[in-house]
Amino acid sequence: MKIGINKIGFSTSHLYVDMKKLAFARNEDPNKYLIGIGQSKMAVVPPSQDVVTMAANAAIRILTKEDRDRISFVIFATESGIDNSKAAAVYLAHLLGLKNEIRAIELKQACYGATAGIQLARGFVALNPENEVLVIAADNARYGINTPGEPTQGGGAVAMLISQNPQILALEEDSTAFTQDIMDFWRPLGKTEAVVDGKYSKNTYLEFFEETWQAYLDKTGYSLSDFAALLFHLPYTKLGLKALQIALKDAQPSDTVRLAQEFEHARFFNSEVGNLYTGSLYLSLLSLLCNSEKTKAGQRIGLFSYGSGAEAEFYTGIIQPDFKKGLAKVDYNRILNLRKEISVSDYEQLFKQHLFSVQEGAISYKEDPAPFFFSGVHDFKRQYEKRGKKPSPNIWDKNV
Ligand code: HMG
């Protein structure tokens, strides 16, 4: 039985900062951010969005009534959770109007979480072939104003339906995983921004790639010519390029040209949004599917997942004939173009206004056009709302 990604949907903030302007504000050469880091825009998550609302906004782009009836498990991967006890998946299932006869859990291992969710979902579908699993990858990547990590911030959510006979990507059997207890990036309880040893994290990411990639090649006997594209977790797109260059060492020119071209398509959305943490690899998959004209049924795609702390996995899938249908006719290039640019000082204000932890208060960010939004904390309870009518400017029309 084929099992894999049946549908994929994405949502991010309607606001962004231009990386050239951020570079000027930080007294950096813009090319450091544009080329050295590989980012052109950075999503600014307003205080009216959190992982639950971004997940709901991503999921409604793909879910039909039939999907809602078939979903029996919601796996919510995040490292920007909003409660130490209650799973974000429970809030989400309610907002999406899913039935009560389901399981709903939250899963964490930094940016590796969503990959763990997909593998778990795959096992669940193998045992329950008529069921679908909704896997969410949602995060708000925060390092702090004027920190080295700042140009690698971002945020958003990817929603994926895992089912039998998937429309997009059928997962293959083999995969290679690697885990080691290291302190490259973490977020101690009570802190709203990550603690990171940036240069060390960069090196461990590349080492974990070499480890899992080589182990995968040894296990399967595949070589570069067996892959149509290699996708990477993209905390910033230059790091994926560095990993690709490791894979391309000693490559035939035809493999280098093909994989380098596909990487450019696969990193485009990430360069426009920034780090989604656990959703980044899957935003890159979406970017490839939306932007490459060479993608076709039967091709093998390799996926490298990395989560600090650290854990990595390399696995593969085969593109399916109906992969375009699995994107639910959403035009993500247009959605990203319709976002609003804000100044560096407006971004700094919004960055400070988030209500985390046990803070009480109301959020009144009225310009947020997203269907689902967060309106504040009352009696320690987070308040979520859905707009009654279509907002304007409307980046939420079905065909956009
Ligand atoms: P930095 O130290 O300020 O930057 O921050 P740098 O000096 O290393 O420069 C960055 C690159 O720009 C370098 O290229 C420079 O040469 C180049 P590289 O050596 O890497 O090839 N550069 C220029 N290029 C063109 N024109 C110029 C120019 N100037 C410089 N004028 C750092 C970089 C990554 C350390 C920082 O952004 C950071 O701390 N980021 C956050 C941590 C991170 O993203 N780590 C990635 C691996 S860990 C991971 O992926 C997991 C994660 O997603 C979390 C999770 O799992 O939950 C983060």
Give a verbal description of the structure:
(3S)-3-hydroxy-3-methylglutaryl-CoA binds at residues 29, 143, 242, 275. Belongs to the thiolase-like superfamily. HMG-CoA synthase family. With 400 residues, this protein is α+β, with helices and mostly antiparallel strands. The protein has helices at 19-25, 30-37, 51-59, 65-70, 88-95, 113-127, 198-220, 237-247, 253-273, 280-291, 332-337, 344-352, and strands at 3-11, 15-18, 41-43, 71-77, 103-107, 132-141, 154-164, 169-179, 185-186, 195-196, 229-232, 300-307, 311-319, 340-341, 361-362, 372-378, 381-386. A 9-stranded mixed β-sheet has the order 5-4-6-7-1-8-13-12-11, with helices on both faces. Strands 3-2-14 form a 3-stranded mixed β-sheet. Helix 5 links the parallel strand 4 and strand 5. The longest helix has 23 residues, at 198-220. The structure holds 3-hydroxy-3-methylglutaryl-coenzyme A. The site of 3-hydroxy-3-methylglutaryl-coenzyme A has 30 residues, from helix 2, helix 7 and strand 12.
Strand-helix topology:
Blueprint: E1 3-11, E2 15-18, H1 19-25, H2 30-37, E3 41-43, H3 51-59, H4 65-70, E4 71-77, H5 88-95, E5 103-107, H6 113-127, E6 132-141, E7 154-164, E8 169-179, E9 185-186, E10 195-196, H7 198-220, E11 229-232, H8 237-247, H9 253-273, H10 280-291, E12 300-307, E13 311-319, H11 332-337, E14 340-341, H12 344-352, E15 361-362, E16 372-378, E17 381-386
This protein binds 3-hydroxy-3-methylglutaryl-coenzyme A (HMG).
3-hydroxy-3-methylglutaryl-coenzyme A (HMG) is lined by residues 29, 31-32, 35-37, 79, 110-111, 148-149, 151-152, 184-185, 196, 198-199, 201-202, 205, 233, 235-236, 239, 275, 277, 306-308.
